[in-house]
Amino acid sequence: MTNLSGWGRFPVAECRVIRARTQTDVARALSQGPLIARGNGRAYGDSALNPDLTLDMRGMDRMLSFDAETGVLVAEAGVLLADIIAAFLPRGWFPGVTPGTKFVSLGGAIAADVHGKNHHVDGAFGSFVDWIDLMGPDGRITRVSRDHQPELFGYTLGGMGLTGVILRAQIRLRAVQSGWIVQDSYATRTLEEAIDVFEDHLDWLYSVAWIDCAAQGAHLGRSIAMLGRHATPEDLPEARRSAPFQVKRKRSLTMPIDLPGFALNRYTVHAFNTLYYHLGAWKAGRTLVDWDSYFYPLDAIRDWNRIYGKRGFFQFQCVLPTDSARTGLHQLVQCIAASGQGSFLSVLKRFGAQDSRFSFPQAGYTLALDFPANDRSLALMKTLDRITLDHGGRFYLAKDSRMPSEVFAEADPRTEAFAAMRRETGLDAAFASLQSQRLGL
Amino acid sequence: MSGGPVLILGATSGMAREIARTFAAAGHPIQLAARNVGRLADDKADLETRHGIAVTLHEFDAFDLDAHKAFVDGLPALPAIAVCAVGAMGQHEENINDPKAGAQVMRANFEGPASILGHLANAMETRGSGTLVGISSVAGDRGRASNYVYGAAKAGFTAFLSGLRNRLAHKGVHVVTVKPGFVATAMTEGMDLPEKLTAQPVEVANAIRSAVQSQKNVIYVRPIWRLIMLVIRAIPEPIFKKTDI
User: Fold this and answer.
1) Per the record, GO CC terms (chain B) (predicted)?
2) What ipTM was assigned to the predicted interfaces of this complex?
3) Are the beta carbons of B49 and A83 separated by less than 8 Å?
4) In the predicted model, is pLDDT for residue A228 greater than 90?
């Protein structure tokens, strides 16, 4: 038995863990009762925890083929995006979509249908997935795609591992000409201005804003909005053009201890946010940023999840549809700022259209925040749930560890269809997590 | 960086997979050898896909001593580095109660590896260069009630490697003895291993590569094991026999 938790370190559960190294191992595990497959444990909550049986897929981490003409890669589920970048960025290829950490597994990225800063242009991770080899309850493998069993394929994107064990998949990488990103950043005085930056620059591949969630009044929602695109050799200084994929390797810092609870309070959070905002404002303008710093700033601090101490933290991430996003976001940010709790860094992103069976994104704006795991945060998040529901929003399961099932059901009419599909196909008897049980999936 | 080919004997284990990756990442072509090489097709694809190096597969049975010379002669190129990761732990109860099972463990950990490395050593000696890496075990440092059959075989292998190193010291061939300590692999899955003493396969691989580069003789993957085994070896026999280590 192993004590496991997601990246938010809450909840912790004692789980029986089996490591799969071959698909025979997976089939054998499936015969031992309901399980959930787990990648690299980067989902924040209880998505990849099952006390009876958690199937560790990191032992299946082989890359099986790559087409250097088209950037099509076939790899096993346990491969990390970091592995993919290490292997292919030097050859001019980068993941089509990446979340804010490169330490997610391929299987996990598919199961959560992760999104990046380019959702408004490219959609979520699933847009770059051609097919998935899925092992069903009986140990049989089905290759699902948009043409073959499209329904099961659609449900597997964002299906949180509840449609089968993802063994391997074919994905398409993006051709890039360098390891650098051209970044334009803007310090905005309010939330509204940040949204205007997004709306005015929909042609940029990447966009994201860090919001100061502690600022109130006239500064409510002030942000550093950042736009980005892959640099071409012409964007690089002369000296870098001969080796456009070479970036300086940063020394990674490690968070050595769990910070004590008192380290995080309204004053330190306020101070941090203010500092971050002013630093951002000072550095606003055009810069050239290496891929690692641009996409994965937090990866540079190993074990950064210890900032919130032993008790861990909650993540809250919702998406509000375009029409109600401005008023809804305003209310959310106002509510958070007034509570004085919160979040070191809150992230706002623009989503483009996405029509999927179960996965999270939809056209509009998504707001992500973290809170220390305590009762006050829970109470605050109840209010945030309500505001989200009132504005037609929905919630991201890869971040969730505490949502009541009623809230999830109310947010998303697709929930019932997903649960019904699981019941009718017998998937519910084979695949379950603490999260699926909590949410009645 | 690149170099000559690296042969991995016993290539299907999790540890061997990481060793192959580490050398492949440094640009070495890889020769994977194991029984039933069909199981290595995905590993070959992985190494080629990730690192763009050439990988060849070679059928190899550590128990089939008669075939070992032909195996070495049949390799497309004599490797620059050969790593022997062949081994089996068996079940200790069975090893002590069934002499045949015990003998299998001794053959898998000592006889077979010694035989194949012997042939490779001769070929490397003739060439005048090469590195041989034997993966032995801390279990060979002192016999213990709980695993002395396995331990004895590893002790034999350790002694073999040290003798080989001594013999080849002036012939341009270097021999590295690796004592990994506990490693999180399929072999140890389900065992309750202390975290601070348990290495990940990738740690073993990195330790081996740096030992090969810096021509170390005997390495413990986690340095703490050198101290632990020093203490365990120092306990006088009259006391040791009463302990339950």
Assistant:
1) membrane
2) 0.86
3) no
4) yes
